[in-house]
Amino acid sequence: MPIAPPSDTARAVLAEAPPIDLHADTLMWSRWTGYDLHKAHEPPLPLAAFGGHVDIPRMLEGGMSAQFFGLVSLPLAKSVRGMARVVHEQIDQLDAQIARRPGAIRLVRTADEIERARRDGAVGALLGIEGAHALEGDLDNVRVFARRGVRYIGLLHFSENEAGHPAYGRGRKDEAGLTPWGYDLVQRCEEEGVIVDLAHVNKRGMIDACRVARKPPIVSHTGVLGAFDHWRNIDDEQLRAVADKGGVVGVIFCPRYVGGDGLEPVVKHLRHIVDVVGEDAAALGSDWDGFIIPTGPLKDPRGLPHLADALLASGMSRSAVAKIMQQNALRVLREA
Predict the structure, then answer these.
(1) Tens of pLDDT along 178-217?
(2) How far is CA 93 from CA 24, 232, 251, 298, in A?
(3) Domain segments of the chain as ranges
(4) Any idea which fold 8-335 has?
(5) Is the pTM of this model over 0.85?
């Protein structure tokens, strides 16, 4: 059955607050396959599995103002040599695509630059590193990457590193918190104006990072345990720790983690965040192009107006939906 067009109210909310998504791994595909951000794609595999989710035409059709692109470097062994180069190559891919059509997409760093790009008809591209192993143990690389436009650094991904231990993956240690280097990394990020991302961090490490944070952290892409029980999801104590520092939590669009297909499970997770810690802490964290099977109505950015409709239908106010879609992410960028 075809999905009904988005309501005028949903479109009005998105016109007021053009969405910002906190995490998509699209540049990984650009580095591997030459994936073209300027071309309108359809995901090539059944159920839109794994990739082919994000490009500029579909971002514009979905009303987006900006996308955070995750910079992925998966270490397959203990050694992390070469991981920084992998990140730089993904940034190079974005630079090349911007150079082709600078009026279509623009590297942005601040809330003001996002809004300026929107007025000029361009979508904003922001950068975030997924896993501090990409720093190769050198805190000075925080400044190097910040100068290339990186706005957040995730402390962990699916393997332990100098900062601590993952919620799941190689080197998981639930009882272990941040290392001394991890504490230093939080401080260095804040000094350089880089947001600390706590996605994939184990609970102890997340609580540690929030305890010492002086600026708002984020959890760029996750579900919440109060809505669905899964190892990938964070609990209410973690929600409160992030929200108490003014941070935001981006809800992932993967049925495996949110507990089912369709818009309703995603809405359930967003509503749980709002119910527990308030409407200033919820955001979008799709994980598009991140080897996930996304929920059908949100297989790409064109589904975002439908998500706005579903949030409104659940009883959320227009102002709360605007915060989730864009304004909470903008606030964290300003405060960082």
Answers:
(1) 999 999 999 999 999 999 999 999 999 999 999 999 999 9
(2) 15, 29, 27, 25
(3) 8-335
(4) TIM Barrel (3.20.20)
(5) yes
